[in-house]
Amino acid sequence: MSLPQHVAIIMDGNGRWAKQRFLPRIAGHRAGVESARQVVKNCAKQNIKVLSLFAFSSENWRRPVQEVSYLMELFLTGLEREVSMLHDNNIQLRFIGDRSRFSEKLSKKIAEVENLTNANTGMVLIIAVDYSGKWDIWQAVRKLACEVSQGTLQGSDITPEMINNKLSFADLPDPDLFIRTSGELRISNFMLWQLAYSELYFTDTLWPDFDASELEKALAHYAGRERRFGYSSEQLSELICSNNG
To answer: Which one, of 165, 106, 126, 121, lies nearest residue 39 by Cα?
Structure first.
């Protein structure tokens, strides 16, 4: 089975999972952490090179203060608890997003775990926190604008490749497979630039119920797709034959 190099997931449905069980929303988030743990292990076993998890969007700051505070605490305790396991399994952990609103304690812990796992050569695990695709493009363009203002770059010389190189995780492949749980059919401002040619997979399964068998369904869906990147099927076949010849 053809496997994606990079899987990106919007982990949606924690609140609804809790509501169905007459539990507080925080119980759903807690269950969602366990699902994330299992997905990380299963992707590593499948030799997926990069796994990106959308943990907290820039828009999520609009949620009730108590829920946001709990989520920030959950990130912190999760890092403290999981970093040893990730490091022992040769997983490199990266965070993408705007860190300016994080507490000093959380920012320090993020830097610590990134430094600890930086040299690891196994799967790269990307956690998107206070992230949005629009923010990512904005910060990339802003960097290029600074170079123009400093006279080291002409505005007319800016290319799509230059923008791409200023985006988060520019050194890694773009997502091949995008997964969203809970039945919502949108990408919700996640990796807008990088998802241009990703295969999209939507499932009604709520995130806390997304287990190894659900991951296999998504991977099987991906394996059955023909990725043409703008070429026709005939052109793609010729390219494959010429590359193999």
So the answer is: 126
Residue-wise pLDDT for 137-163, tens only, equals: 999 999 999 999 999 999 999 999 999
Q: In the chain, which residue ranges form alpha helices assigned H by DSSP?
A: 14-20, 25-45, 65-88, 104-117, 133-149, 160-166, 212-223, 233-244
Q: What percent of the chain has pLDDT over 90?
A: 71
Which residues does the annotation mark as catalytic? 12, 60
**Alpha carbon distance 59, 189 (integer Å):** 9
Give me the domains of the chain, ranges plus CATH numbers.
Answer: 6-131+173-244 (3.40.1180.10)
- For residue 62, give the amino acid letter: R
Cβ neighbours of residue 232 closer than 8 Å, sequence gap 6 or more = none
Is the dihedral angle over the CA atoms 197, 207, 12, 163 positive or is it negative?
A: negative
Amino acid found at 1: M
